Amino acid sequence: MHHQLRSLRPLTFLSLASLALLSLSAQANVIVDTQGVDMERYHADRYECEQLSQQVEHQQTDSLGHDALRSTGKGALLGAAGGAIAGGSGSKGAKIGAGVGLVSGALHHSAEKREAQQEYSFEQQQVVRNCLINRGYQVLN
Prior knowledge:
Layout: H1 2-6, H2 9-28, E1 32-33, H3 39-53, H4 64-85, H5 90-134, E2 138-139
Antiparallel strand pairs: 1-2
Helix pairs in contact: 2-5, 3-5, 4-5
Protein name: Glycine-zipper containing OmpA-like membrane domain-containing protein
Signal peptide: 1-28
Organism: Ferrimonas marina
């Protein structure tokens, strides 16, 4: 099982890298009409608004280990039952089911993380957008 979890480490790194890029791109998506705007003041206001957006709380998801363990257990139970019903070895079915459950748990965890990050980025973007509007800027999107 340690070997299987170790092989998931590159996925974790890629997930973290994509989360960082999503966070940066969310704040860059606010478009302001800068015609007639003091650009020095605008950059200062934009920076302050982006700093305020950092106060958005990041929704926590279950840990990868928790999701994988839960799915591995379910997969083992289903595999053992399926193997026994089919007249085969329940333990062999449990091993196969546990493997499928482990992969399923990792995929489920990844999807939950992605969804939580998208929600977090959207909320941060809304904070920046509303902040700039409240400071008198014309936000175009």
